[in-house]
Design brief:
about 325 residues; alpha+beta; four-stranded antiparallel beta sheet; about 20% strand; globular
Length: about 325
């Protein structure tokens, strides 16, 4: 099993300052048993975060920035590509935009905690407007719809993780074919302003839904495998990292260390094959178990970096 840990080093300044305070004894011991593999480089200005690129590569998906076909992969699993084909798919996530004097910010959609009734009611209200542009909304889960339309073909979009907590305008698609989507966002703000779902939420002093985010676009190649691959993506650091909440991020790392990392350490000591990738914005550092005597002799001649030293390089 290959374990991928995104946001091992977040870009936020508070989390960056917290790295020296991390105490990860199980990770420190595990790194001493593993062999480094060639790193993968990234940057914080890409539409697709580095951890998504690493995961996409494991699935044999194309690695074009902003066109990792996650939605098409879901559509294939649901049998929808037999009807509509492998192109023109996307995720649409209802969200809350915070309007500020000089910018628009987006809370993570998970904070909305939409229930099944709410998200179905919103989809029914929004579907006619999307249909005018040839876009069909399909139910997917409690927070996201799977959508299809020709206008979405080969449209580069930014990952939801890019827009959360940031200035939304920076990550909006700017190509000509996205104009109708920007118009739809404006229309949805007016439609949702007095929607019964939002009226009820506002009465309960809960965040309302006033926009949507589009992501996961891209064409699915015929050789791509399904999502039941050998990579386990751990998302426990993500929420705190996106908020740049250093205290919560350190706590999440410590829980990960005493839980999953401790389990991987036991597996490594038992000689079970494993791979581990720690992913930041600038670099994904990979490690694997090299269980040969000659490597153990060589490895003892070198000093294994501490977790904090390693994370500062990501």
């Amino acid at each position: 099993m290959h374990t991928l840990i995104p946001f091992a080093t977040p870009a936020g300044p508070q989390c960056q300052d917290a790295i020296p305070r991390l105490e990860l004894p199980y990770l420190a011991e595990l790194l001493g048993l593993l062999t480094p593999t060639p790193p993968v480089l990234g940057n914080e200005d890409s539409l697709s975060p580095l951890h998504e690129r690493v995961h996409a590569k494991s699935l044999n998906l194309p690695g074009v920035d902003g066109l990792l076909p996650w939605a098409a992969l879901d559509a294939r699993q649901l049998g929808l590509t037999r009807i509509h084909g492998d192109t023109g798919w996307a995720w649409i996530t209802p969200c809350h935009w915070q309007i500020n004097a000089d910018h628009v910010a987006m809370d993570h959609p998970d904070t909305l905690a939409l229930d099944a009734h709410e998200i179905d009611a919103l989809r029914e209200a929004m579907q006619p407007y999307f249909a005018e542009d040839g876009i069909t909304l399909h139910s997917l889960n409690h927070s996201t719809w799977l959508v299809h339309g020709e206008i979405l073909c080969d449209l580069p979009t930014a990952s939801l993780a890019r827009a959360c907590g940031a200035k939304v305008d920076r990550w909006m698609p700017r190509v000509a074919q996205a104009r109708s989507l920007r118009r739809l966002q404006n229309e949805m703000q007016m439609l949702l302003y007095r929607h019964p779902v939002n009226d009820a939420r506002a009465a309960q002093r809960r965040l309302t839904v006033n926009s949507f985010w589009i992501s996961g676009t891209g064409t699915l190649p015929s050789g791509a495998v399904d999502k039941s691959d050998n990579m386990s993506v751990q998302h426990s650091l993500e929420a705190a990292a996106l908020r740049d909440d250093a205290h919560a991020w350190v706590q999440a790392w410590q829980q990960l260390d005493s839980g999953l990392i401790a389990l991987l350490l036991r597996q490594a000591k038992a000689g079970q094959p494993l791979e581990l990738t720690l992913c930041g914005e600038r670099m994904a550092a990979g490690f694997e178990l090299q269980n040969t005597a000659w490597w153990n002799r060589i490895q003892r001649r070198f000093t294994t970096p501490s977790p904090a030293e390693l994370l500062r390089t990501l």
